[in-house]
Amino acid sequence: MATIKDVAKMAGVTVTTVSRVLNNRGYISEKTRNKVAEAMKELQYQPNEIARSLYRQKSNIIGLIIPTVAHSFFGELASHIEYYAYECGYKILLCNSHLNRKKEKEYVEMLKRHKVDGILMGSHTLEIDEYLNLNLPIVTFDRQITNSIPFVSSDNFEGGRLAANLLIQKGCRKIAHISGNLSLNMLSNKRYEAFIIEVVANRVEHITVQTEVDVFDIPQNERLIYNMFKEYPDIDGVFTSDITAVQVIQACSRLNKRIPEDIKIIGYDDIQLASLIVPQLTTIRQPMAEMSKRAVELLIKQINGKEVLMENIFPVRLVERNTT
């Protein structure tokens, strides 16, 4: 395997010159750059990225920790983040935590060992001090860990208000909100807060059904939905996340509940699946691409030592389709 010394010898330059070419440091003539490039090509030389990152004190790699890329929301989120990071000259190291504290801790340690320049967090199970002690730029997505770490989120409160109001306007008299586990300190809890304010103000009967801590357990959520309909067969409106809303649509089909005649359903996110399922899902759209871009920008600004805005909340929009 060729070494940097072999490249220097073939190009007729010093090892220091080859290093300066690799790290784009100092003035190097175009002629010299070409000679080094030709030598690298002929020798099939692959530079040691870890060594280069130690020299430059920058790896141009960003860690992304999410619960699971198999979930449509986080799959689309990861795709957007990778796109904008690449546009800015960064690569992504993707980690699926599966909401496992031990696994997330191991991934965080791995990212530190690989000298990532910063971490985007779409999952957090560790204690706050464990994040603060990382000494790395961090941006969180849809969760606020502490006032000293910037976060990106949609306006969950407004989304909950829009959803509740639409179901009320459509004549729903018993509305179910299927939320995440409200014991978790998530910004999505604000959807529940707004929902409760609206249904109480309008004197509409309502129930709240919480998922378990692992909100991504599809079979578990399916059982939760069937139990909900068994206990409250007169529910005529449901507000929940897009993926869970799709499961509600499936349950309604099996239970012979007509949509939207017997029951109206509103999701939250506007993932691609929302417009593909039949009937197409009415949902609250959060601007995932714009939010992903802002998250990458915030992280890169921190990497470059610049101050950033801690609270980054994006407006949501009601997208009405066939389930209401």
TrEMBL record:
UniProt xrefs under Gene3D superfamilies: 3.40.50.2300, lambda repressor-like DNA-binding domains (1.10.260.40)
HTH cro/C1-type domain span: 3-50
Domain of life: Bacteria
PROSITE patterns: HTH_CROC1 (PS50943), HTH_LACI_1 (PS00356), HTH_LACI_2 (PS50932)
Entry keyword set: DNA-binding, Repressor, Transcription, Transcription regulation
Domain HTH lacI-type: 2-56
InterPro entries on file: Cro/C1-type_HTH, HTH_LacI, LacI/GalR-like_sensor, Lambda_DNA-bd_dom_sf, Peripla_BP_I
DNA-binding keyword on record: yes
CDD domains per the UniProt record, alphabetical: HTH_LacI, PBP1_Qymf-like
UniProt keyword annotation of Cytoplasm present: no
Pfam families membership: LacI, Peripla_BP_3
GO MF annotations in UniProt: DNA-binding transcription factor activity; transcription cis-regulatory region binding
Signal peptide annotation: none
Protein name, entry field: LacI family transcriptional regulator
Species of provenance: Hydrogenispora ethanolica
